[in-house]
Amino acid sequence: MSMNSGLKAQTARIGSSKTAMRGTKLQSAVRPKAVASKKQSVLGIILGGGAGTRLYPLTKKRAKPAVPLGGNYRLIDIPVSNCINSNVNKIYCLTQFNSASLNRHMSQAYNSTVGGSNANSGFVEVLAAQQSPENPEWFQGTADAVRQYLWLFSESDTKDYLILSGDHLYRMDYELFVAKHRECDADITVGAVPMDEERAAAFGLMKIDDTGRIIDFAEKPEGDALKAMAVDTTILGLDAERAAEMPFIASMGIYVFKSSVMISLLSETFPTANDFGSEVIPGAKDMGLHVQAYLFDGYWEDIGTIKAFYDANLNLCTDKPNFSFYDRKATIYTQSRFLPPSKMLNCQISNSVIGDGCSIEGSTIEGSMIGLRSLIADGCTIQDAMLMGADYYEEYDECEALPDCLPIGIAQGCTLKNCIIDKNARIGENCKIVNVDGITEGNFEDQGYIIKDGIIVVCKDATIPAGTVI
Predict the structure, then answer these.
(1) Percent of the chain having pLDDT more than 70?
(2) Is the pLDDT of residue 377 over 90?
(3) Residue 424's closest CA among 466, 372, 366?
(4) 3-state SS record for the chain
């Protein structure tokens, strides 16, 4: 499988003995036995989601898949990298809100080709919602978003459509997912994760027969309705001990459809249905189509809320994180930014991740995620915080040389705790962003921040004056 040289293998050694450069193309050693027919027979469709209100204000100026993750990455890099590593090299991402930064990232990170030869070249493209005489409305849901671009997807002449979400954190081999779908000759296959009873009530659950075929759905059931959804998960491959602990299966919100079935369902059977999970797939099951479950027994996290996003990022800083970017066999790719190494002068840093191009002086950092181009001045204390960094370095005459201009970054003497600082924020000297009043929910957007689940989120491009205490 080959990729454009714009791809950056952040966790693998590009240029090693297993990597060969030919002109402007990069031949990756991740999967040396890529099969052309498999690449041509699956189309990846990543759903960017709605307005991202649960992640607001991180989605105030960007689409949800463009939200920064893990110091150097963005959420969209996860499903795109999973596709590339699974030999799915024709990928669309559908979005309709604040798509400019997503478009820019995708074009700079992946350009237009992720495939091999000209005969089998791939692509990664963003498709924004648009109005037309046939479709005068914006996307109304997951199914409607796909329906509006069926005319384009059908041109790919692929056997199956792989439907993915843009706000999940996991590493998965989609080749196995598609192989199971074809082995069962299913019309639709739904990705599922095992669940214990405590967490199951928060998800859409599925019930299966002894072949793994889905026979019932229930959305966030409780009480007796929840107990009725328990299944024998050994059918899907769990061992007896794990099956006893995890007697429920929840939908991951990812699917494989036969392309002909997708076109028929969205165009003819359910021409007005807006959602896959609550309308199209249960309806397909009820009309007798073969809807199969595929168990994914690995780490998977829906990071569509501020708390889930914050927890998932800080977990990456631990000695045994749930998800690792350091897997050379399944690289997570992102944009090549050509930034210098980070520089830390007289600092105390523990259990933290420092992104590229940072400059940190005389500060204490513990259990924190520090994003690329972060500038942290002397005497700061940062604990259990996520700093997203900056989109650019300011020139001296852009701010520092001007009176009353507060430079991008964290000024000296600041204390940050249990917070998220979005990109390009300007934090003045001796600020304390620690939630001193213990507020759980609060909208202070006019002052540059919002509090959700007790986590302070400083908005992108916000300015917090010197001496501010939050």
Answers:
(1) 87
(2) yes
(3) 372
(4) CEEECCEEECCCCCCCCCCEEECCEEECCCCCCCCHHHHHHEEEEEECCCCCHHHCCCCCCCCHHHCEECCCEECCHHHHHHHHHCCCCEEEEEECCCCHHHHHHHHHHHCCCCCCCHHHCCEEEEEECCCCCCCCCCCCCHHHHHHHCHHHHHHHCCCEEEEEECCEEECCCHHHHHHHHHHCCCCEEEEEEEECHHHHCCCEEEEECCCCEEEEEEECCCHHHHHCCCCCHHHHCCCHHHHHHCCEEEEEEEEEEEHHHHHHHHHHHCCCCCCHHHHHHHHHHHCCCCEEEEECCCCEEECCCHHHHHHHHHHCCCCCCCCCCCCCCCCCEEECCCCCCCEEECCEEECCEECCCCEEECCEEECCEECCCCEECCCCEEEEEEECCCCCCCCHHHCCCCCCCCCCEECCCCEEEEEEECCCCEECCCCEECCCCCCCCEEEHHHCEEEECCEEEECCCCEECCCCEC
pLDDT for 438 equals 95
**Which pair of tokens denotes residue 140?**
């109304």
pLDDT tens-digit readout, 304-346: 899 999 999 999 999 999 999 998 889 999 988 899 999 999 9
Q: What is the pLDDT of residues 411-427, one digit of tens each?
A: 999 999 999 999 999 99
